[in-house]
Amino acid sequence: MASRTVAPPVTAEGREALRLSTPVALWWAWVAFVVVNVADYAVQGLPSARFGAVVSAILLLGTGLAYVLALRPRVIMDSSGLTVVNPFRVHHVPWRLIEHVGTGEWVRVHYGHAGAEETGGKKLDCWALYVSSRTKRKIARGAPRPRRGLFTSQRTAQWLEGGSADPGYGRLPEEARHLASLPVAQALAVRLDSRAARERARQAGAGPGEAQAAASWSWPAIAAAAVPALILVIVAVIA
Amino acid sequence: MAIVGYIVRRILTGIVVVWLVASIAFFLFFSRPVTTVARELAGRAATPQVINEVITNLGLNQPIMTQYWHFLDNLVHGNLGYSYFTQESVDTMLKQDLPPTVSLVIGGVILWLIVGLAVGIISATRARSFFDRFSNVAVLIGLSMPVFVIGELLISVVFYPLYSHGFTWINTGYSGITSGVGSFFGHMLLPWITLAAVQAAVYTRLSRGQLLDTLGEDYIRTARAKGLPERRVVFRHAVRAALTPVVSQLGVDIGQLLGGVVVVEVVFGLGGIGQVSVQAVEQDNLPVIIGFVIIAALFVVVSNIVVDLVYATLDPRVRIT
Prior knowledge:
heterodimer, A: alpha+beta, 2 domains, five-stranded antiparallel beta sheet, three-stranded antiparallel beta sheet, 7 helices, 8 strands, 18% strand, B: mainly alpha, MetI-like fold, 13 helices, globular
């Protein structure tokens, strides 16, 4: 990692934030759970002060963890590069340093040093774009081969395989059809990869420039998890 | 090192899943009107005062969230609660009833994997032979036979004739492994065969289909063209690739089996958690139901972790990195 400076501010130009919907849904489910708890105790009262303190501390810790692990992580694309917001760290990698975006346990950005003959071979996992075991299996299996059924005509089978010569307004373009057939995480990796390739090509004509990857700790995120944990420990010890 | 991180992550995710399942089960059962359970416990002729007393004794008059946090507190301390009817600890009930079910599931799985994979591999490598056609018919019969029919059939065709001639090794009921390995196998043999009969048919069909697909792949043709022995082509290259969907299916099946073996448990009088959980549902015995739901969720989580690890071993493309 080049330095521990704060990632450069992003511009609004071509800015796009990517994240999966499941963690966001989990965050809102947790928020609903907290609201139900608060409403129930507001209406029916608490059995004891100790009970209220412990439950409040647990809810606070849960909210902090849900924010840090589910709501906060995202990947932001803009004209300057890729900003990867992980639970406790923020990474910024300029487009020209990105070699390839693939999948592992997460969507993984492979990048190197600017101007180096041999690439550094660094990897950066995007926490927001998690690749589940099921998705990994789908990726490994590749696109399913359409099978010709008992009542499927030769023409339909050809159309299913995408080999039909008939163009049609109802048919998606080849690239869109390919992306739609991929699991979400892989489709996002392909999108990030193709955007990186486009930006690299665009910036290649601009001549050599200073480009460095940057990473920084996010203290608010650390505080969001650590402070409630500390409060819970104190409450557990005192109460 | 990557694999340790992966297992730790999966265990943490598993804990969240079990907590979610436990919470959903809790709210599903405990948000109902509390008088239903209390009336059943107090009896038909109970007065409203008695019913109220039962509700207070069970703590069902407390706010639902207070009950929930007490439930979670007990859960974290390994206490699953007490049966409403017998006042027996659910932990003790699980200790008693889990061994027959786990023995049945593990033995059944091993048997159906051996039979299902062996028949599937032979059928695929000798497609359209007499053995293949015969196994196809056997699979159809296996799939169409309800489990209790196979169980009753084995009892009347195998157990009774042997028992009446003084051969008492094969028996019904459950005998723990601590009371002798021979006796344990004798008691479990027929239940294992019953459980394996249907599932072996499913796995035969699955492995045969997958292996036939894999044997038609280009890399198998290349392996044969390179002069590799057929045994090596089949077992080293084809079966390994064909096994991956079978492993996925196995993870799902083992998780579901825990609650699904109740028929076999009843037919052979094994006891087990399937039988007890059905009884708990009939009685509205909420702590027992939730205890068994949590154990079933744990089984699913653990079997999925194991399946993912086996999958990563079988298929280098999903290797954990």
